[in-house]
Write a structure and sequence with these properties.
The chain is mainly α and about 280 residues long. The protein contains ten helices and two strands, in the order αααααααββααα. Strand 1 and strand 2 form a beta hairpin.
Length: about 280
């Protein structure tokens, strides 16, 4: 019961912070997203590099922060787009720093410094394209809708998976996540589509119903891959959770693993379809 109460309260707190970030203003959004990025990169680097190359880990996180901040300023404050290219400089610094590392006995771990930038900072920076229009006006409702679809998919997959998937049907990726099943996958997709339709009729997704349903399918499939990608990292390094920031729920990376792949895919679709 104590664990249930702890999970519930921490979950409510997490949702409250996310709602504040997406429904208040661009300054709250920027602060919450920036801190979340730092925490997730720190969790990933702690999982993959441990206490090795601490200074280099800080440089990697700084490179990720620079990319997010420049993208944020570009989309939200009319910062010259050409200057976003400055985000490459900290990445080059990480590379150059590798030459001066004295202990190269575990130099293979150095690759994780670049992976953290590509895996977390790059997709997280794409979120800025979902909340700012061409004039720099902030509206977090679309990003909130994306999160609702992704998390709705997770809930549907869990409900169908725990009730039917463990008894019937085949496993989805048994070598990576033994509990995930095909029944859970289809249950998650059903829930994602249902959430997208509700959001469409509620006016939170200003696209045609067909676009909303297709987006839901894209987000669901990409979200499943995002979940599996993080599971593969955790299985390789033999850890249960990426962190312990959210009591009873693990780390921030555990909460955003699906969104890191799904939401950028959704943004790309809307940009290509000229809907964003």
């Amino acid at each position: 019961m104590n664990n249930f109460i702890k999970r519930t309260l921490s979950g409510i707190g997490f949702v409250a912070i996310m709602l504040a970030a997406l429904l208040t203003n661009k300054f709250v959004f920027g602060i919450v997203m920036l801190l979340s990025l730092v925490v997730m990169m720190r969790e990933f680097l702690h999982m993959t590099c441990g206490s090795e190359y601490r200074y280099s880990q800080i440089l990697s996180i700084f490179a990720g922060v620079t990319l997010f901040v420049l993208t944020y300023l570009f989309k939200g404050f009319n910062f010259p787009g050409r200057l976003v290219i400055l985000a490459f400089i900290p990445v080059f610094v990480v590379m150059i720093n590798s030459l001066y590392v004295k202990d190269k006995s575990r130099f293979d771990k150095f690759a994780n410094l670049y992976t953290a930038i590509l895996y977390i900072a790059v997709p997280w920076s794409v979120f800025n394209f979902a909340v700012f229009n061409g004039n720099g006006d902030f509206n977090g409702k679309l990003l909130l809708a994306f999160f609702a679809i992704v998390w709705g998919s997770d809930v549907g997959a869990y409900i169908f998976g725990i009730t039917l998937g463990q008894k019937y049907g085949k496993k989805l990726f048994p070598s990576i996540s033994p509990k995930k099943s095909w029944i859970g996958f289809w249950g998650g997709m059903l829930m994602a589509v249902a959430v997208a339709m509700i959001l469409h009729y509620a006016g939170l997704m200003p696209f045609t119903l067909l676009h909303c349903v297709f987006l839901a399918v894209l987000l669901d499939v990409a979200g499943v891959y995002g979940d599996l990608i993080e599971s593969q990292w955790k299985r390789h390094y033999n850890v249960k959770d990426s962190g312990n920031l959210i009591p009873g729920h693990g780390g921030l990376l555990d909460r955003f693993d699906s969104a890191l792949i799904a939401i950028p895919i959704g943004v790309i679709y809307l940009v290509v379809a000229n809907l964003l």
